Amino acid sequence: MSFPHVQNRSASLPLGHCLTQWARDHGARVALVDESGERLSYSALQERAERLAGGLYAAGLRSGEYAMMQMPNTFGFFVAFFALLRLGAIPVMAMPNQREQDVDALMALARPAAYFIPDDAGNHDYLALAERMRGRHEGLRLVVVDGAPEDRRDALILGNLQGPACPWPGHGARDTALLLLSGGTTGTPKLIPRTHGDYFYNFSASAELCGFSADMVFLAVLPAAHNFTLASPGVLGTFQCGGTVVTTTSASCDEAMPLIERERVTHVALVPPLAKLWVEGREWEDSDLSSLKLVQVGGARLEAGLARQLLDTLGCPLQQVFGMAEGLLCYTRLDDPLETIIHTQGRPLSPEDEIRLVDEEDREVPEGQTGQLLTRGPYTIRGYFRAPVQNTSSFTEDGFYRSGDLVRRDGNGNLVVEGRIKEQINRCGEKISAAEVEEALSALHGVHAAVAVGVPDALLGERICAFIKPEGQEIDPVAIKAALRERGLSGYKVPDQIETIAEWPLTAARKIDKRRLVTIATQRASGEPASTPLRYRRESVPIQSEPFEMAVKLARHLEADRYVLYERHGEWALGVDCAMEIAVDADGTVRRSDGKSWRAASPGAGIEQALADLPFEDWRAYGRADFEFAYLTYGIENTVHPGPLLKIAIPRSEIRIRQGAAQLRALDVEDMARLTEAIHAADGEAPPRCGTPTGMDVRSSGCGQYQRLVASAVAEMQARLYQKVILSRAVDVPVAMDMVASYYAGRRSNTPARSFLLKDGEFQAYGFSPEIVVAVDADGNVTTQPLAGTRALTGSRETDQRLRRELESDVKEIAEHAVSVKLAVQEMSAACRVESVTVDEFMTVLERGSVQHLASHVKGVLAAGASAWTAFEKLFPAVTASGIPKKEALESIVRHEGRKRGLYSGCVLIADSDGALDAALVLRSAYRDGERYWLQAGAGLVPHSTPEREWEETCEKLTSVGPYLHAVAD
């Protein structure tokens, strides 16, 4: 498909050339004004950007490299932005309020060579953050600071970076110009690659439609890194017309409105929450706003009531803007009827924008009905940056972007946004838009604001609960329901439960915490007092030790009876002691240590309910699931494990350790002081002394018995009772083991996907997980990693290569792996959108300690209504540790092994309040329970297996742990 609008407008003007052209056209006209009143002409802005581009080139930055910008709305932001475009480097637009976790994730994804930051942002030390980022991301070479910090810490000063003219990049319309941050980013970041052609069209066509001109003055009150402020039409649209941009770092009425009066601002862009604050602020703020000619509102759905208030209060025309950084932009037109401007979110910018509204099966909905918005067009992307799995669910095969918005279209082609897919309430099978209920409530007298949520209900599935913040008077639920019916709201959409609330509970991102509202609704309906969630105190402490060594020293140093240490992606997270525990009994009952219990349709659903109303804010849970937890899922009689089968603890305190810093979290002052003292003490200690290995022989016993079990299972598979089973054997360790020292020694010689060290009273374990059972991020992306097929790693390059070739050509090993991947795909499809499930890195070879495996990744995106615990239940136990089909394999394990496996081939996990979950398969591990110490390992059996080879495989796996066992020192 060709898009002439893009090609004709942008082919001769890549974004790096725009400022040069604007300086020629508008020269001495004022381009920028800051809060202090300083002014910068187009020519001066172009000269500064040209000098900075030359300075960056001299410092080693090159065309095609990425440069992250995390800067407020200052002159420095715009100079840096245009300098990068002039050089041909690709700006990565981060938000000024993002903190370490977000920045770290974006760095890992974009791999920037440069990082632009301010020198002063209140209590936030950007320079310290930049130093930590440079320690973690080896490709980050340059840190550029806008300002003059006293301690530069090897950073470059933006104002001092100058150099001769750098070479012009040879960019075309289809080349990537910049990376925008997706508005939906919560956990795993998504970056949006915008090309020179599509982005030029984005702001130039928008400026034309919105009536921008040379005499306009645009106030950039929202972050300029946001697509709405930057180019819809925003700053770039203003520059395209020769207008003036006024920058501010504050959106508050008492600072922004005097700027409007002083600079005679004509245009401003707001988001609905800010628009609401401005309406309220005019009750006391009296600056002269008569210069305003247009206020644009976008970024989220604008309620009709607020639209009318905004028109009345600001006294200027309103334009609604609906769109996404991924592309599509819709605007109400300046000459639209007032009712269209108030009640709709406008029509697409381009005549070549394609819109489809579809149901859950991707079928077109009838005209006038609500459906999910799919879009394709001349400036809409076809894929996220370095996100192949996300792209399978976010884009259709023919290139339409799945926006996630629920939209209907009126007779004139205007779109009306009804909400988001995830904001539907499923009441008695009816899908109800929370936004529709909220708008109906907001129109009622006495309602200041309203939020609707779906609350689990035994009869209705979900009931509608409306939370209302009143306007200074009591709310009568009966009167509210009657008023909604009188206004024509369908009976099944009228809230079942109405609650009054004084202040909204907020997430870390300062959005309304709907999970917390569900908890409050449940508590109020049951007559329980709604408790204020407990908050973790936070502190960051610099450390000199390597993260792994620091984690082990802390495990040794902290005198805790209960902890879990979990290694993932270069971070060691240590949860200490227990503030609250959730356990699953052998009969499936989910119990919480505060006395509550649940019997849900499945254990996973019960766990989800137990976690939903935890009285902690921003929690992380640490836990473990024993192998026999699977018996609940598959309906197998459990005669070997009395329970509990799964335990999850919310820690009293927590330490997350990365290179150069430890992040501390604790529920009370005393625990925080204890953690801080432990960090300082451990940082000064030497690494653990390992002593002399026990010299245990993993081949010393059990050969005959194990080979007889293998022969029995192979005979059953040859009789086609099942396809694959993993049978294990335990090896007792004859001496008392030093579990911490043994973990330390073993981890130094292993290369696991995850590792862990835990203590729960008399029970201890550690291990080097070769794979994950399942990982789910906050955006619902799911990954599992089946390993099947094994050969030893001997330390001899020649021998290891020969064994690798043997592994890759062995029919038995290949067949074993293929059926494992097939089952993983089936299980993922039961929890994920079927079209999103993909296999990548198929049958590669991974080295894990003393063995090498055939490995694949299976990925997908959670289906509507599914959660991380849905995926966990479908994928547990890992096929690597059970067999195929799982039910028949589990029954075979019960028959042949006849004893409790416990944590062996179960999992250790962490779960977060944002819905993320990470579960590591427990293999290559050592265990202690009271006076007993042991190892355990298994082999994957298929009909072609031989007892001799499978015995050898268990020995190879035990060698990942056995040689590194250390006895307790005398």
Question: How would you describe what is shown here?
Answer:
It is a single chain. The protein has 970 residues and is α+β, with helices and mostly antiparallel strands. Among the domains are: 428-516, ANL, C-terminal domain (GMP Synthetase, Chain A, domain 3, 2-Layer Sandwich); 703-747 and 770-964, Anthranilate synthase, CATH 3.60.120. 32% of the residues lie in helices and 27% in strands. It is built from 28 helices and 48 strands. Strands 29, 30, 31, 32, 33, 39, 40, 41, 42, 43, 45 and 46 form a twelve-stranded antiparallel beta sheet that branches. The protein is globular, with a radius of gyration of 30 Å. Residues 705-957 form the Chorismate-utilising enzyme C-terminal domain. Pathway: Siderophore biosynthesis. GO terms for molecular function: acid-thiol ligase activity; isochorismate synthase activity; oxo-acid-lyase activity.
What is the CATH third-level topology name of the domain at 703-747 and 770-964? Anthranilate synthase
Q: Roughly how many Å is the radius of gyration?
A: 30 Å
Strand content: 25-35%
Task: Give the CA-based shape.
Answer: globular
Secondary-structure-derived class = alpha+beta
Q: Provide the low-confidence segments as ranges.
A: 1-12
Helix content: 25-40%
Number of strands: 48
N/C terminus separation: 76 Å
Number of helices: 28
Explain the layout of strands and helices:
Layout: H1 4-10, H2 15-26, E1 30-33, E2 39-41, H3 42-58, E3 66-69, H4 75-87, E4 90-93, H5 100-110, E5 114-118, H6 126-136, E6 142-146, E7 156-157, E8 176-181, E9 191-195, H7 196-209, E10 217-220, H8 227-231, H9 234-241, E11 244-247, H10 253-263, E12 267-270, H11 272-281, E13 294-297, H12 304-314, E14 318-323, E15 329-331, H13 338-343, E16 347-348, E17 354-358, E18 371-376, H14 388-394, E19 401-409, E20 415-420, E21 424-427, E22 430-433, H15 434-442, E23 447-457, E24 461-470, H16 477-486, E25 497-500, H17 514-525, E26 537-542, H18 547-557, E27 562-568, E28 571-576, E29 580-584, E30 590-592, E31 597-598, H19 603-612, E32 620-625, H20 629-634, E33 646-650, E34 653-658, E35 661-666, H21 669-683, H22 703-718, E36 724-732, H23 739-748, E37 754-760, E38 763-769, E39 772-776, E40 781-784, E41 787-792, H24 797-809, H25 811-831, E42 838-848, E43 851-861, H26 868-875, E44 883-884, H27 886-897, E45 907-912, E46 917-921, E47 925-929, E48 932-941, H28 947-958
Parallel strand pairs: 1-11, 3-4, 3-5, 5-6, 6-7, 10-11, 10-12, 12-13, 13-14, 24-25
Antiparallel strand pairs: 1-2, 8-9, 14-15, 15-16, 17-18, 18-19, 19-20, 21-22, 23-24, 26-35, 27-28, 27-37, 28-34, 29-30, 29-33, 30-31, 32-33, 32-45, 34-35, 36-44, 36-48, 37-38, 38-47, 39-40, 39-46, 40-43, 41-43, 42-43, 45-46, 47-48
Helix pairs in contact: 1-7, 2-3, 2-4, 3-4, 7-9, 11-12, 18-21, 18-23, 19-26, 22-28, 25-26
Pathway: Siderophore biosynthesis
Keywords: Ligase, Membrane, Transmembrane, Transmembrane helix
Transmembrane segments: 75-94
